[in-house]
Amino acid sequence: MAHSQDGGGPLSCCSVRLLTSTADLVAWRRHEPERPLHFVPTMGCLHRGHASLLKRAAEPRSGGPSPRVLLSVFVNPLQFGPDEDYERYPRDLEADRALATAVGADALFAPSPAALYPGGESQLSRVLAPPALATVLCGRFRPGHFDGVATVVCRLLALVRPQRLLLGEKDWQQLQVLRRVIRDLGLEVAVEGCPTVREADGLACSSRLRYLGAAERGRAAAVARALAAAADLHRAGERQGAALIAAAREWLRAAALEEDYVELVHPLSLAPLVEARGCSMLAVAARCGDCRLIDHLVLMSRPPIVAIDGPAGAGKSTVTRALARRLGLLYLDTGAMYRALTWWVREQGVDPGDAAAVAPLLADLDLRLLDGTDGEQQVLLNGHDVTAAIRSPEITALVSTVAAHPCVRDALTAQQRAMGSRGGLVAEGRDIGTAVFPDAECKIFLTASVAERARRRALDLAERGFPVPPQAELAESIAERDRLDSSRAVAPLCQAEDAVEVLTDGLTIEAVLTALEDLFRERVPADAWPGPADLASP
Ligand code: PAF
Question: What are the Cα distances from residue 150, in Å, to 76, 133, 195?
Answer without folding.
Answer: 11, 12, 21
